[in-house]
Amino acid sequence: MPxxxxxxxxxxxxxxxxxxxxxxxxxxxxxxxxxxxxxxLILLLEKYPKLHQTVNLVPSLILQLEDYIxxxxxxxxxxxxxxxxxxxxxxxxxxxxxxxxxxxxxxLIDPHPxxxxxxxxxxxxxxxxxxxxxxxxxxxxxxxxxxxxxxxPLFWEDPEIAHWLTQDRDFSLSDRQRIYSKxxxxxxxxxxQHRKMQESGQLEVTTTPYTHPILPLLAxxxxxxxxxxxxxxxxxxxxxxxxxxxxxxxxxDMYKDRFGCVPRGxxxxxxxxxxxxxxxxxxxxxxxxxxxxxxxxxxxxxYFHRDGYGNVLDPELLYRPYQVxxxxxxxxxxxxxxxxxxxxxxxxxxxxxxxxxxxxxxxxHSISKSLIAKEGHQGSSLExxxxxxxxxxxxxxxxxxxxxxxxxxxxxYQTLSDDESIKLVTVSEFLDEFPPTASFPPxxxxxxxxxxxxxxxxxxxPAKNRAWDLLTAARQVLANHPEATETTNPAAWEALYAxxxxxxxxxxxxxxxxxxxxxxDQLFREHLIALYQAxxxxxxxxxxxxxxxxxxxxxxxxxxxxxxxIDGSGDEQDWNFAGRLEIGGASGTMHQAxxxxxxxxxxDHRNFYVRLDFKAGVKPGLEIPNELNLVxxxxxxxxxxxPIPLAELPRQAxxxxxxxxRLLIDLTTKHTWLQEAxxxxxxxxxxxxxxxxxDKCLEIAVPWEDLNLEPDYGLQMALMFSDCxxxxxxxxxxxxxSLQVP
Length: 742
What we know:
By secondary structure, this protein is an alpha/beta fold. The protein contains 26 helices and 24 strands.
């Protein structure tokens, strides 16, 4: 019988434990994301009853939602919002100015006139100016808007919320108190609505180990070397596999209590898996778990190559569940399509909603056609049941979408509701109807996560390793107190569980950075301090000092996808996750005299981006040359490469290298010419849709289509300045800018 293409969306909702032992919260993200991202997602889905999906709710998130609902959770942001503005001290005002714009200003700030007015005052005049010139009215409005902007557009029809949005300014303490009450009203609906939709069959709710720990690393930190054999490891080996069933059991019991049934699916924290954890998962009673395509590829020794459109070349291997048999029971595993998940998470927010929805559905149709071809028959429909898994963060991506993703999801859901060739299912209902027919032995399961199939995001960096050593020491102290059980000393165990969470290690060291790095460092150490204090043990002095320095770095590698507006404004939020090179005055003879201050670079699934910041007043042809050459080569690919056609090139790397693509930009006219290397050192012109803008800085977007590259190509790039075809200088002075095509 013919089958539709089955698609399982899995949305992951998670926040780490921001609560310290005094009951106070350090950060507001549970409360703010709770009013914007958890309830609206499923309320929108409920309008399309044909569409079934899966949502993962992490226990640490549920616990904190319940504290806010009960009125026992107070974070510093909330305490300030509920304070009379005339009582604010200078230090509190400074905190408000610095932190109450922590939101995407394109989507959450600028659409609201008063919030945008205050934001641009700070952006254009600076914090000291605001501290000197703002009056009580300004602080009162900012305290209100920091909360109002996070109400999801789905709730804007609420009479109270609509009134506040129209009011725009002059918010009183009473207004802010009622805004807080409305937040709690929305939070109160989240878990009951998930339970209701699960009971109706439209939703499956899954869970995660209690505080979101990386289970493979709890079993043994040495497994970091499975994917990275030469990884630097912590000085002390963490081996406490007995903590795995504790996290699973606590999550299981919480779920039963809140949802009136047992969970079937498990979202392993950060989709990190290993053979060692599987028996514990099966023994607890879970039936399936989800992880990334990179894990499957490493497990079956088959890298998932993609065609020029980003579609998998071996769809019959990825789009199916697999069975893994353990002595404690069988488990099913589904593996997400990494690229489709990333398109929603990082790229579609920069597209028109209709185009983005059409692109995703187009990919699903392409997958269906490729599977029909693999089935080897002449029909136009699928003869076998296939499952495409799209699994991603269900909260953070929407901040980058217009109206929090509502128009995109409405277009997508309506299209899918009308399309009989695609069927959205929960994972469990697919597995019930179509049990896995493929399998692999548990010992062959690759140890890694959704990030490059490795665990380097949580271990291996010096700062991450220092944190593991601190955790290992604390865990041993707890083990030295056998009388301290979860019954007799729950505070010690809760502190341990909190410290074992993955998020602290995510932010330590290289890889990720935020305005709250120092606070995440502090929270991690506070949880460990609480463990020692609960055991009446002396607190090690190293826990009183930060794990790492939190001075602002000057050079970064890319930390995520970016999708800036190319208008020459150099919007800092647009380039927040970009790679960065500091140039002017840093080092090197060329740099000392350079009018270029820094270079930003990054990518999304559509474009490669470059931004150059210059000293004020710089003009092409005067302080800098009037031509910029972007040159690329692809070190792992066999293709024609040619020398750069510039006179007076130095005979040293990288200027003496041969390249495959060259984009020449006339900085005076902003015209561009794209060339591709051919045989016999020739260059041929190619069409290009590159975009160039120069106002406060130079911003460039080069579509991947211009370069005709397949996904996963690695590239090396340099920037060379020239005048009338004569070389003048290049960036970086040593080495390359390296990136990988998404």
